[in-house]
Each structure stands twice: as C-alpha cells, then as structure tokens.
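User: Here's a structure from my thesis project, written as structure tokens. My advisor, Dr. K., wants to see whether a designed sequence matches the one we expressed. Can you design one independently, without my sequence as a hint?
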C-alpha cells in the first residue's frame, strides 16, 4: 500500500522492478493500480480455471424411446439401461412415440410410463411427470439423491 502516486512515478517503479503496472479498478476519481507480473498472474488464473473445470460434473440427458406396443422383455432391457444411466449420474428422458391411430388412445401411455417409473424407482425418481407433447409422451427421471 503506497498511497496516491502520480502515474509516471508508478510506471517508473514498475519498470525498475521489472514488473507490470496493472489497472485493478477504473474509477473516474482515483484509479487503483497494482504492480505485478501480469503474465504469471494470467498463467495462475488459467490453472485455477482448468482445475475448476476438471472437478465439474456435466450431467447429460439420455433418451429412451418406446411405443405403446413395446413387449415386456424389451421394456425390461430399457429399464435396465435407464437404471445404468441413472447410477452414472445422468438424467433420463423417456419417450413414448405415437403413430397414426395411436393418437386417439394417448391415455394408454400413462400406465406404461408409471410402470417404467416403478421399475426404475430404486435408482431414480420422477423429475417431470409424463405429459403429451405433440406426437410424443415425455417423462424425465433424475438420479436419486443420497
């Protein structure tokens, strides 16, 4: 903490020490500057940013598609895959696709979604309940919190 100094004196001090004069706060009344090695500062800041990104977990949304006529065995395989995705920490988007005359019987999809959610209940929970969006019925499952 040096105090109030003319800019020419501050530049000379920084030059004598072989360092940079860096503007910290640009106020109209009194700008605040610091004498430091700016290259070293940028390097350390980039190292901190890399470390923070490395510790960050990015959750993905995995999709599982079904139809109203999906058989029991295929449904079991899809629930097994969904449980694997949920234990890995990813969210699962379950989609029932309707075609043609199936659009007239959209209410038949809710029990299928409920059955799927019950099968995945040990590894995940319903994040967004089943709802119809156009020609699809969509439900989101998220991993259970410890």
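Assistant: Designed independently from the structure alone:
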């Amino acid at each position: 903490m040096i105090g109030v100094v003319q800019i020419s004196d501050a530049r000379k001090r920084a030059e004598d020490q072989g360092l940079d004069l860096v503007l910290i706060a640009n106020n109209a009344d009194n700008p605040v500057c610091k004498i430091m090695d700016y290259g070293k500062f940028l390097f350390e800041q980039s190292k901190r940013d890399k470390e923070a990104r490395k510790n960050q977990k990015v959750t993905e949304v995995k999709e599982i598609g079904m139809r109203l006529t999906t058989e029991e065995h295929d449904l079991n395989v899809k629930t097994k895959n969904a449980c694997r995705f949920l234990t890995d920490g990813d969210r699962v988007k379950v989609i029932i696709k309707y075609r043609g005359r199936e659009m007239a019987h959209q209410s038949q999809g809710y029990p299928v979604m409920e059955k799927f959610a019950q099968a995945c209940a040990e590894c995940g929970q319903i994040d967004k309940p089943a709802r119809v969006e156009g020609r699809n019925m969509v439900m989101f499952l998220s991993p259970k919190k410890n």
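When you compare it with your expressed construct, this may help: The longest helix spans residues 38-54.
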